[in-house]
């Protein structure tokens, strides 16, 4: 038997990796709509992707790769169900799945695959799961991040994160957590968790924890899509509007965040003519609607910070004192030390790096394993011309970064100190 040529192997693998990133949530949601067993659905989807690698290397890509994977995953699920002892008793429950198996794989064009991602995110954010598990499970199932990437984002070991995800899947199945969007009476207890997860998905796209580039536009756009769906479900909710405003105001800068070679461009050096002014206008309008409801929340405060940046003509003219005050309010509201780190950065531009460094020194116990803490500290020390300490801080930041573009940027800053020294 002839082996597939290296280009065929590479092409199939790249297609599967791209599909896993872009369509995992949609495919898993479609399976869960019929199977209602989280672990089985994930296992069958993974087996289908493995089968795709074998078949596509040999036969080439199908007309509908996502449809092929979904149909294969359904058939693997049906095989498992038929082998189960209670299949006869539960056959009626799986009738729809059995009917789907009789359809042609080509019927599942990407646009025709049911979009169950919002139901999936509510399942992942059920109150029976803790917040960290909800975020991790959403990043894995909805966005296709690897366990290693998620572990790095949470500063956990890969084994610990894998075990957390396994326990979460089993808990969803054992507890009978429903695969559904909750009714209005349950929104209050679920809303904040869902919005937080959507924003963390966006943040992973805006500042990727791993990979060769620092920006993953697909995740940013997925988060914006989910936020828009949330607004359709709850059109007069201030924090949903605040989250949408925040994401729009940040994503509007995307074109200016990389140079033509893909290198990272920091905020103070961005060409603001590249910012998407139409998107900024949409973000400001969402923020105005949110604030008019007089129901303040952390996403609205963060969006207000984004608005200060968006309305400044340049970095020097930014209202840094206003930003510092807004971060004070955020910390009072959430207790998150990262907001104090961001406040320190704002203080450094309003009052100087010395004042900011004294704030950072008090945060080391909480943020000592957080890469942006060391990157910010390195920049302050560089600006104070404390070059030896700055070098050490840059090296620490580089060691904690899993992103190639980010490491290149920090390495460039480290090398530039030799020219300043």
From TrEMBL:
Residues 26-85 form the RNA polymerase sigma-70 region domain. GO terms for molecular function: DNA binding; sigma factor activity. Residues 190-290 form the DUF6596 domain. Coiled coil: none annotated. Residues 121-171 form the RNA polymerase sigma factor 70 region 4 type domain. GO terms for biological process: DNA-templated transcription initiation. Pfam families: DUF6596, Sigma70_r2, Sigma70_r4_2. It comes from the Bacteria. This is RNA polymerase sigma-70 factor (ECF subfamily).
